[in-house]
Amino acid sequence: MKKRRIMVPIILLALACPVIPGFDSGLKVRCYTVESDAVQAPVRVALISDLHSCGYGENQRELIDAVDSQNPDLVLMSGDIFDDELPDDNTEQFLRGVGKRYPCYYVTGNHEHWSGSGAFLEKMDILKECGVHRLSGVCETVSVRGTAINLCGVDDPEASFTASADPARDTVSFLQQIDQVRKASENGNYTILLSHRPEFFELYAAQGFDLSLCGHAHGGQFRIPGILNGLYAPNQGFFPKYAGGEYHKKRTVMIVSRGLARESTRVPRFYNRPELVIIDIV
């Protein structure tokens, strides 16, 4: 009996050992390299997605310092940087920390639109004040060390929630915006599409974008590395195809960030640390 009492905690400890590290929510920097003959010199992009107004230290220094340590040429934000329930303070602090020091570009996610028309416009005003460019069905060309890059961005399909109060948005649909930016980018430059939704990858590939940067899936929330890349993602359901990582179809590469949400999620992450994504285009 004494031996059995000793063995029980040992067995429980052994079972807990692989589980406890899975709930680590510390910030991770995840790096990708994408090759292209269209760039004259390497271009480094920092991808920020699904921050959901979560906190990363005093004045967001942990996240800002992580971006600074990577010295990106561009900071791109693929939606849900704000949340529809949490205050905007953390997001505003982050944007003020990077917006005037890096070229920053942003597209909306569903949660910005779910905030309602008044709150949505307040969030868009914060972006402007912080020097962040919103891409709403438009394509802008930037130059990075001699390489011209098309930066295209589309609103989240949930934009209908706030369309009537959004002066930056046409009345066109998500699909029409995709068509608009494709036509605007037909100039031979390397083209990046910034879109919140990864589940439309086949559409992005059919349009011939070089690189699509997305979020929304939160890494599938629960992961088992090497076995399960994600348990559930919004708009994809269980065992999502595009939970997080790098995907290829035709000439298009899609990179899906697992996002930065922590305290805003009702279900904890498991083996799915929040991440700052760095992409080197070489």
TrEMBL record:
Protein name as annotated: Phosphoesterase
Keywords tagged on the record: Hydrolase, Metal-binding
This protein's record includes keyword Cytoplasm: no
One GO CC term on file: membrane
A Pfam family the protein falls into: Metallophos
Record PROSITE patterns: PROKAR_LIPOPROTEIN
InterPro entries recorded: Calcineurin-like_PHP, Metallo-depent_PP-like, Metallophosphoesterase_sf
Organism whose genome encodes this protein: [Clostridium] leptum DSM 753
